[in-house]
Target: ATP-binding protein
Amino acid sequence: MSRTVPRPEDKLIELVEFLAPIPEAVPVARRHVAEVLRGWGLGALTETAVLLTCELVANAVKHGSSAPAPLTGRARQQIVLTVRHRGGLFIEVWDPGAKGLHPQVRNAAPHDEVGRGLHMVDTLSRAWGHYSPAYGGRTVWCELALPAGTEGERASAR
Ligand SMILES: Nc1ncnc2c1ncn2[C@@H]1O[C@H](COP(=O)(O)OP(=O)(O)O)[C@@H](O)[C@H]1O
Ligand SMILES: [Mg+2]
Model:
């Protein structure tokens, strides 16, 4: 796994992490997001951002692993987490999963232990969505509003 953590004095506003598609990717992603938000002065968003990152990475591990052609070699074995600070806080998770599967909010019954992740993403984010890049796989993303007074803050879209 490689990492690039921008320092506050850098003009970098993006963190990109390559994660193995295994359950251990979830705590690794959690640590990286908490660390980078601290560095960006966005500690107030840590709790929510970490929660949503964990759901998106867990989904990439659980639902995104059946890579078809044309993805080959390394691309089939990676999840890519991107965190971007630009007008809002964007969390994107790319997985090499097949085209036919679509992330969708499920109506979980009170005792269901699955089917709550995207409901949480939908409730706690300002916006979320997914798309299939031309090179394959799928990206699921969500956006959190920056705290009032943060540089680059944009008015809420919701
Ligand atoms: N990265 C993904 N790739 C394909 N399908 C996904 C992905 N993330 C979520 N989904 C679909 O959306 C559904 C809802 O996701 P979620 O609410 O996290 O529930 P769960 O992961 O417990 O099934 C999943 O059951 C799955 O069918
Ligand atoms: Mg899930």
